[in-house]
Give the backbone structure.
Amino acid sequence: MRSGVACGTSEEFPEVHAFLKSIALEGKYYELFVDNGIEDIETVLELNDQHLDALSIPLGYKLKILKQIKSVRQGKGMQVPESRQGQRSESQLSVKELSAQKSNLKKEEKPKKSVVFEEKEHPERGKKSDNLGDGQFDEDESH
């Protein structure tokens, strides 16, 4: 039952019925899918492992459903669901792509600021300090 209304018939959501029938699960999961708003093939093709877990579908049936989803996606020329086209998680990226991302990040880093110390007169000597402890050092004088 969906919100107090009888569940749709296979004629009401034929794509879902046909999908489940193709793996002999229409009698077992048609009503569950429709009760959970899975009413067309686009929605079916968006399903993943976590969604099927949320529906409490046992492992064996889940594997059958996922395998059929993959097959239908391939038949439509899809690698991933339409909602995730162009998006890849870091775990799906190749080593080459990850390296390129990291090198791009390094290139985008801001240049380091150089620190310039003010020249101050030494209070006791009255001349500019060349003491590193005072934060001053003249490289030309050191040679």
